[in-house]
Amino acid sequence: MTDALNIALNYAHQNADRFLADLKDVLAIPSISTSDEYKPEVLRAAVWMADQLRGMGIQNVEIMPTSEKGHPVVFGEWLKKPGAPTVLVYGHYDVQPPDPLELWETPPFQPTVRGDKLYARGSSDMKGQVIASLAAIESALKSGQMPVNVKFMLEGEEEIGSEHLGDFIKKNAKKLSADVCINTDAGMIGADHPTITYGLRGLCYMELRVYGPSKDLHSGLFGGTVHNPAQALTELVAGMHDKSGRVTLPGFYKKVRRLTPRERAAFKKLPTTKKFFLEQTGVPALWGEPEFMPNERVGARPTLEVNGLLSGWTALGSKTVLPAYAMAKISCRLVPDQTPEETFKQMQAYLKTKAPKTIRWELISLHDAGTAITDLNGDGVKAMSDGLEKVWGKQPFLVREGGSIGAVVLLQQYAGVESVLTGFGLPEDNVHSPNEHLHLPTWYKGIDALIHFLYNFGK
Ligand code: BES
Ligand code: MN
Asked: Among 247, 263, 295, 341, which residue carries the largest CB count within 10 Å?
């Protein structure tokens, strides 16, 4: 087997430029899942992925619709190693919108290498990670001694909450059955710090609409007689936190699992210190629950964020208007054992008691994701940990992360498949932000680590 491992690693090194060319190719497709306008492009990315799998020799490749409205899952499998374990490869081929466009140094869908970085929307989150997984499997297949069976589930709705993935997994649980899922969407905490993530936060994404007068009014004729919806909305939003940064929704913390002294000790040892967060964010001072360290607040505490505000006149110049309407996009990151359903009800309860009689309001649920804690005792974690250690020369950090990936819980719940979460995206990659990029030396190390994983897991 070590011969095959070395052949696979050599193949990967010899094909390094081709892998990069493939990645640039798929990064040029603007597969933005959130807007209907880009639906054909999302489909084009699915077709690209399917063609790529077929080209590698993967069988039964299918572009499977998940619903009438949603984006499809790309499935494929290679099961020619009876008796060997089966690895399910997860990935998402959709990306976040690139806005604000004017802040990009090179266009988001014109992948550009500058120095040792590749710039494009999706380069780090997560087309780069998907191509790394495909490159590792192609290399293992080419060695002539593929150590495991593989299946692929590549989705196109991750960035908008994986709305239809639960039903898809339920319906196809047998087809997706595997000994482990590898999910490279969780990133790493630093280029020198290989990482396995064992916890992800959940999400409850809401839209709050506040209605005032039946139409926009002249602020001089009516100001002082009606409650301005922009003001009422921001008063409500301001009341959602107390002075110390705690969320005030009734019962919000009731189900939050307390951090054990052991967990707190582990957070303390991570290189993600206060200084790290100051450097990454560029803020003059940090904010949040004072009794927890910043990395605990991200990894293990729930939060409430305003993601967007809309009301009145926001274009150039001025307009003396008293707006009829105001809207806020608000999302809560959740930790075990909170649920999106309960959080939504807590927000409703907050609004019922706090909203003034002077306005009407409406709360809409946009999407959800469950909280996830993955099993650290499985063979998959051991195989990944050893693979990362081979390449980086040190054991990976085990962390709880603040982001959400719907598929992790859905695979646990509906198919009984545990995920091993890792990845080769870095905190400084500007994911979901202008000038997203991928650190290529780390990416290439990632491909090697995944090859090691496959041979470790096949043993
Ligand atoms: N790759 C991220 C999730 C992530 C980020 C995991 C950092 C661990 C560390 C993923 O693509 C993402 O951004 N997901 C969305 C999901 C949401 C829309 C349900 C998120 O977390 O905002
Ligand atoms: Mn992602």
From this structure: 295
Residues 396 and 441 in one domain: yes
E strand intervals along 191-342: 195-200, 202-211, 217-218, 303-311, 321-322, 325-334
Please state the atom number of ligand 1 nearest to the C-alpha of residue 203.
Answer: 19
Q: State how far the Cα of 275 lies from the Cα of 268, in Å rounded to an integer.
A: 13
94, 158, 373: residue to mutate for ligand 1 pocket, most atoms within 8 A of CB: 158
Instruction: Check: CB of residue 208 under 8 Å from CB of residue 235.
Output: no
Tell me the per-residue pLDDT of 276-290, one tens digit each, with 9 for 90 and over.
Answer: 999 999 999 999 999
**Ligand 1 center to residue 160 CA distance, Å?**
10
Q: Is 95 found in the same domain as 222?
A: no
Domain that holds residue 229: 203-256+302-369
Task: Give the nearest ligand 1 atom to 368 CA.
Answer: 19
Q: Note whether 345 and 213 are same-domain residues.
A: yes
Beta strands, E only, 234-390: 303-311, 321-322, 325-334, 360-369, 372-373
> How many domains in the chain?
2
Q: Is residue 263 part of a domain?
A: no
Contact 202, 337 (CB under 8 A): no
CA 286 and chain centroid, separation: 23
Give yes or no: residues 353 and 416 share one domain.
no
The rounded Cα 167 to chain-centroid distance in angstroms is 20
pTM over 0.90: yes
Domain boundary, last residue among 369, 384, 413: 369
Spatial separation of the C-alpha atoms in residues 297 and 273, rounded to whole Å: 12
Q: Where is average pLDDT lowest: 66-70, 132-136, 354-358?
A: 66-70
pLDDT at 11: 98
The answer, yes or no, to whether residue 188 has pLDDT greater than 70, is yes
Band of residue 2 on the pLDDT scale cut at 50, 70, 90: confident
